[in-house]
């Protein structure tokens, strides 16, 4: 698939069919995340694959994941990420964002829908899943086959012109 068509066509799926994502497709998606660039290639991401009934109950207590049977919780390891020597700012959020984006696009390429969720109590997630202190949950990525009634939001195709988002220096 042409990248620009893939990027333009991918949308946040907010209704899943309930059909389980096959293991080989899940592995394809996870490998796309593994191949994502990270600062100094330190790869500080930790991806928790949540598929069990108990795990899904926990994740849905944080955020209702649209009926997804597979949810990825993307975390960054605070101890493993690069820190900017000028500002001290850690790269973990950026690294995890790139990883999640790679996985969303890889999923779309093979017909698997996804949506980016960052509106959840990250401290509660750490508690529910007994995460080590250095693991910071940053986003949830529900995955699955889109339901028949799934469609992009009305805002999906609303893009600002390049002139409003870029500056030539």
Secondary structure: elements and pairs:
Blueprint: H1 3-9, H2 23-34, E1 45-50, H3 53-62, E2 70-77, H4 92-109, E3 113-114, H5 122-128, E4 135-144, H6 162-165
Antiparallel strand pairs: 1-2, 2-4, 3-4
Helix pairs in contact: 2-4
* Count of separate DSSP helical elements: 6
Overall structural class, as computed from helix and strand content, comes to alpha+beta
Number of strands: 4
**Major beta-sheet overview:** 4 strands, antiparallel
Radius of gyration: 17 Å
The H-and-E topology, N to C, reads as HHEHEHEHEH
Share of helix among residues?
25-40%
Shape: globular
Plain-language structure description:
This protein has helices at residues 3-9, 23-34, 53-62, 92-109, 122-128, 162-165; strands at residues 45-50, 70-77, 113-114, 135-144. It has 169 residues and is of the alpha+beta class. It is built from 6 helices and 4 strands. Strands 1-2-4-3 form a 4-stranded antiparallel sheet, sandwiched between helices.
Protein traits:
169 residues, alpha+beta, globular
Give a short overview.
This protein has about 170 residues and is of the alpha+beta class. Helices cover about 35% and strands about 15% of the residues.
């Amino acid at each position: 698939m042409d990248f620009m068509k893939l990027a333009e066509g991918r949308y946040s799926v907010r209704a899943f069919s309930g059909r389980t994502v096959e293991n080989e497709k899940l592995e394809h998606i996870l490998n796309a995340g593994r191949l994502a660039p990270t600062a100094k290639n330190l790869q500080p991401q930790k991806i928790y694959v949540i598929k069990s009934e108990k795990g899904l109950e926990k994740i849905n207590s944080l955020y209702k994941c649209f009926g997804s049977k597979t949810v990825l919780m993307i975390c960054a390891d605070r101890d493993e990420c690069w820190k900017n020597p000028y500002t001290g700012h850690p790269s973990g959020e950026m690294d995890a964002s790139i990883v999640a984006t790679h996985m969303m696009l890889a999923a779309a390429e093979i017909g698997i829908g996804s949506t980016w969720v960052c509106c959840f109590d990250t401290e509660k997630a750490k508690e529910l899943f007994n995460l080590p202190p250095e693991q910071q949950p940053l986003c949830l990525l529900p995955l699955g086959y889109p339901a028949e009634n799934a469609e992009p939001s009305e805002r999906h195709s609303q893009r600002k012109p390049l002139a409003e988002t870029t500056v030539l220096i």
